[in-house]
Amino acid sequence: MNKKTKFDNWSPRTDLALEISNTLRANKEEDYVIPGVDVQTEQDEEHRLTVTKVIIKDKTGEEQMGKPQGHYITVESPTIKENDPEAHHFVIQAVAEALQSVLPKKKNKYLEVLVIGLGNRFATPDTLGPKVANKVLVTRHLSIKVPNAIDESVCKLSSLAPGVMGLTGIETAEIISGVAEHVKPDCIIAIDALAARSASRINSTIQIADTGISPGAGVGNCRKQLNKESMGCPVIGIGVPTVVDTTTLVADTFDTLLQSMLKEAEHSPFYDMLKELTEQEKYQLIRENIFPEIADLFVTPKDIDEVMEYLTSIIANAINIAVHPGITLEDINKYTY
What we know:
Radius of gyration: 21 Å
Largest sheet: 9 strands, mixed
CATH topology of the largest domain: Rossmann fold
Oligomer: single chain
Shape: elongated
CATH superfamily of the largest domain: HybD-like
CATH architecture of the largest domain: 3-Layer(aba) Sandwich
C-alpha cells in the first residue's frame, strides 16, 4: 500500500470547475478524459471569446471534481475588463445563451425568476451581486399592480440583495429561503464574486452553474449552500473571480522564475528537482513557508472599480435577455448602456 503524503488532500483555491478540470488533466495524455466528466470547448478567435462546458455526469465525476453533478459553463474573454461596448455585446450574447441553456423549462408560460445579489456592497471586489441585482429589469410588481401595462414579452422578475451575515446578523440562506417561500419563483439566479487559481482569469471569466452557489466561497468563508434542496427550486449560480490569494500569486511567480532559471542552468540537479515538483507540491510548499501575515491575503486589480461596472452591465444585460423573451440587447442599450 502506498504511503499517504501530506499533499494527498491538496486542492486549489478556486471556484471554477474549468480550473479544477485543468488541474486534474495536467501532466496527463492530451486526450485524457476525467472519469464521469465531459469537457467541451468552443473558441471564437475573431471576438477573443472561449466558452467551456464542464459537465459532471455521475458520482464518480463528483468525487473527481469535488463539485455536485451538473453543468458548469465558463465564458472567458480579455475584453470583459476592457472599455469596449462592442466587444461586450458578444460576451453578453454568450452569457445569455449559456444561462438560457440551464434555465428550467416551463410549458406554455414564462418563468418567474428571483435574482439574488450576494456580497458586501461596501467591499468593492464583492459588490458584483448587489450591483447586478440593482440593474436587472424588475417586473413582478408590475404584473401584480398593473397587469395590463405589461405583456408576455417579459417574465415576472424580482430582485434582492440580502447583504452579508456580518452586517445583518442573519444567515444569507435564511433570508433568501424566506423570500422564496413567499414569492415562489420557478428558479433563483444568484450572482456572487468568486476566487480563481489563475491570476489571468481575474475579472475576465464568468461561470454559470445549475448546481447553486455558496455565499462567501470566493474568500474561503463559505456559508450555507444555495441549491434546489435548500431553496425548494432550481438555483443557478453566476460568478466572476474578482480576487486571487497570495499563495497563488507566489506560485505563479515561482513557475516563471523556475522557467527562467532552467534556461540558464539546464543540467543543474537542483533545478531539475524543482522542475519535477507537481503543482500540488509547489502550492503546498509555498503555503507552508509563506509569511503567516500574508498567507491568507486576497488581492484584486487596482482598476476593480471600473471593471466592476463593465461586469455589472454584462451580467445584468445577459440575465435580462435570457429571462425576458421579448427583450433584445438593442432594446436595453437604448436606455441603459
